[in-house]
Specification:
With 476 residues, the chain is of the alpha+beta class. Helix content is 39%, strand content 25%. Strands 3, 5, 6, 17, 18, 19 and 20 form a 7-stranded antiparallel beta sheet that branches. The longest helix has 22 residues. The protein is globular, with a radius of gyration of 22 Å. The N and C termini lie close together (9 Å). Bound molecules: adenosine-5'-diphosphate and magnesium ion (MG) (2 copies). Adenosine-5'-diphosphate binds next to strand 5, strand 6 and strand 14. Pathway: Sulfur metabolism; glutathione biosynthesis; glutathione from L-cysteine and L-glutamate: step 2/2. Homodimer.
């Protein structure tokens, strides 16, 4: 990603101020909206979701590579989710020491013993990448992670292209403004949800969004809901507590919540330990997993998105096992892998510890967590590893090569933040959507993208974590 905005624009403070004022109004007009922190459960006070003043240049070939590999990632996640032996082996060391993953895994085991009640599977994921700067000036696409649960911003990212188009026109960059791609992940996600709802086959049943207590980003989800209502598919929003209190299964394991039959449970909550505030939340998760409702994701698909699984996939021969007859899929997926290293007990893990301690700035240490702000960088890697290296506790982490995108200057527009130029790094996400019934993949698509940009001062964190902001790729 290269600097494309000329200095005479970037440094013209009067112009930047004007552009920023227009950009904020354009974002409000377009519906790039978020509730404010102070009132996260009311839509009386909303503001623009944070975004960049200018779009960020992304090489066309790399962008297309990311879109093209998505259907293979969909297939891979889906295959992993159906392979209990693989999940058991891949996660064995992690679940020995990480309570959260262990708990999820227990649900997985319980469902296996009881037998899966629903043969329809709905997968909505987002594979995230950064462009690693090579010495020859080109960049290569490296996967940061794949999110198989509660991947967000498919809605708001459909509204940001028009904001950037307008800013570019206002800045006299007519040609560039025509290069901002249309994008509508929410519509594609909804097509998959609708298909799953249809296959469930009960006209009166609803799609239940399982939502967090704090709903700042509700408007992002409303875009998906809107697409479903357009098809006369009713949606409801419920929390773990609601499911615990009013949920039940009938004799056929149909899920009823508050008396309404649920065809699809779409998890926008449940991805981190704090989401399970009580045992009741875990009971509710189990109830939903056991039910006939289509789960997005089901527990196996949730586990397939762990960082530990990501690391195990880089072992020689593992991808080949999942794609025995598709060497081109193996090649495309593997090309996006960064170096990932295990911290299991034994010589390999010992080697990883030594390597990280010798050059901590080359790596990121990751626990099995989601939602931003959990990874460990730099000297803190040494502190943590020194403390855990002699014990099994180290198995809760994996180590990853740090990706180095080229920093680009831009302005990050955020409520209550001063307007100042920042050195920025971007992360490209690609949305995948698929539906399988039994052995038949009835839909497998790439449904859009998300570019997020953050100041390079921050090592970690996404938009919801208050670090990154929404952006658009400008293909070059
Ligand atoms: P989470 O599930 O919490 O989003 P991620 O693996 O996406 O976890 O890491 C969070 C953030 O940390 C990313 O959005 C990215 O900014 C940064 N990050 C993660 N892995 C790397 C890496 N290998 N190199 C550079 N930055 C990384
Ligand atoms: Mg994640
Ligand atoms: Mg992430």
């Amino acid at each position: 990603m290269a600097q494309w905005i000329p200095d005479e624009v970037l440094m013209n403070t009067a112009l930047i101020k004007d552009l920023a004022d227009v950009a904020k109004d354009a974002a409000l007009l377009q519906g790039v909206l978020m509730r404010i922190h102070e009132a996260s459960n009311s839509s009386e006070l909303v503001t623009y979701a944070p975004f960049t003043l200018f779009p960020t240049a992304v090489p066309k070939a790399v962008f297309q590579q990311a879109l093209a590999v998505q259907i293979h990632y969909n297939t891979l996640v889906d295959k992993i989710s159906q392979d209990p032996d693989f999940l058991k082996e891949a996660l064995a060391s992690t679940i020995a020491v990480d309570d959260f993953t262990a708990r999820l895994f227990r649900i997985h085991q319980q469902i296996l013993e009881e037998g899966r009640s629903q043969s329809v599977v709905l997968g909505l994921n987002r594979s995230d990448y950064m462009l690693d700067q090579r010495e020859d000036g080109t960049s290569s696409l490296k996967q940061i992670e794949i999110n198989t649960i509660a991947a967000s911003f498919g809605g708001l990212s459909s509204r940001t292209p028009d904001v950037h188009r307008q800013i570019l026109r206002l800045a006299g960059r007519m040609q560039e403004s025509q290069c901002i791609l249309d994008n509508n992940p929410a519509a594609g996600l909804a097509v998959a949800v609708a298909k799953a709802w249809d296959l469930y086959g009960s006209q009166g049943a609803v799609v239940m969004f399982l939502v967090e207590g704090e709903q700042r980003n509700i408007l992002d989800q409303r875009y998906v809901e809107k697409e479903l209502w357009k098809r006369n598919i009713p949606t409801i929003r419920r929390r773990f507590d609601d499911v615990y209190e009013t949920g039940r299964l009938d004799q056929d394991k149909r899920l009823f919540v508050g008396g309404q039959e649920v065809a699809v449970v779409y998890f926008r909550d449940g991805y981190m330990p704090q989401n399970y505030a009580s045992e009741q939340a875990w009971d509710a998760r189990l109830l939903m997993e056991r039910s006939l409702a289509v789960k997005c994701p089901d527990i196996g698909t949730h586990l397939a998105g762990t960082k530990k699984v990501q690391q195990v996939l880089t072992r020689p021969g593992v991808l080949e096992k999942f794609f025995p007859e598709q060497p081109e899929a193996v090649e495309q997926i593997r090309a996006t892998f960064a170096g990932l290293y295990n911290l299991d007990m034994g010589p390999e893990g010992d080697k990883t510890v030594a390597m990280a301690l010798a050059a901590p700035d080359r790596f990121v240490l990751k626990p099995q967590r989601e939602g931003g702000g959990n990874n460990i960088y730099g000297s803190e890697i040494c502190q943590v590893l020194e403390a855990v290296k002699g014990s099994t506790e180290r198995m809760a982490y994996i180590l990853m090569d740090k990706i180095h995108p080229t920093p680009v200057q831009n302005y990050l527009l955020r409520r209550d933040a001063p307007l100042k130029i920042s050195n920025c790094l971007s992360e490209l996400g690609v949305f995948g959507a698929y539906v399988r019934r039994g052995k038949d993949m009835v839909m497998n698509e790439c449904v859009g993208h998300l570019l997020r940009t953050k100041s390079s001062e921050h090592s970690d964190g996404g938009v919801a974590a208050g670090v990154a902001v929404l952006d658009n790729p400008l293909l070059i």
